[in-house]
Specification:
Largest sheet: 6 strands, mixed
Shape: elongated
Strand order of the largest sheet: 6-7-8-4-9-10
Number of strands: 14
Strand content: 25-35%
Distance between the termini: 37 Å
Radius of gyration: 24 Å
Length: 303
Amino acid sequence: MTVLKTHNLTKRYKDTIAVDNFSITVEKGDIFGLIGQNGAGKSTFMRLVTSLSKADSGEIELFGESSPKKLAAARARTGCVIELPALNKNLTATQNLEYYRLQRGIADKNRVQTCLEIVGLTDTGRKKFKNFSLGMKQRLGLAVAMLSQPDFLILDEPTNGLDPTGIVEMRDLIKRLSKEGITILISSHLLAELSQMANKYAIIHHGRLINELTEEQLQEECRQALAITVDDAPKASVILETALGISDYKQVSKNEIRIYGYTDDPSDVNLKLIQEGVRVAYIKEVGDSLEDYYTKLIGGAAQ
């Protein structure tokens, strides 16, 4: 089931195009990572989806609905933390949630306690919001988003500014919510952090979609390998399998092979190929870190 689908979504601010013909699809069960530098258009895109801003053009479909009336009803199934909600600094976690429960007309009085349990804030007692750590404030913001029991969560930079402990707590919480059946769209400029949560990714730069890929495709892009340039790649492939027992490789072209999971000692490969009459031009280790891959993509997009 498709939870969110956008088509050519565009938003302009005077002479700046903040979101430029942006199209993505988020399926039920996804933790969909929206990756981009600060100012890339992530927050603006999320504001468009949640109706906090109005698009200049393009289409938004939520839970299969796209007409204005039905889209408004579909948004009721969506919770979001794009900016920290306006929480009263002099109220406790319970009091703040109770305010939003009443404001939203949620009849279930037990929902406040349930949401505090979800985000791990049941032990804050009479502690006021102004005395919360940043991580606690972020989690209380998430509790507000969870009040209406959403099927879809939109989280804008939920780990931004957190210390390592806070990042781990938020990450674990997001993964747990996903396992409980909530679809999640999450933005970050930290690809390494998102890679520990997301199963799909869209990379946004200057408001435009640069690439969209699955977790498996991202790992393949960043996978470490030996790139071997030879005079006869088909013959070299046979030697790899029969003489060295290597099956995890890919013939990239008639003159290049990439071997995965065999990067520690390339001399064995080099020697065997030469002994079997294959001329080796060079062997080198290739593969990007997640950050290298991201930097390469946005660098190319900027040219």
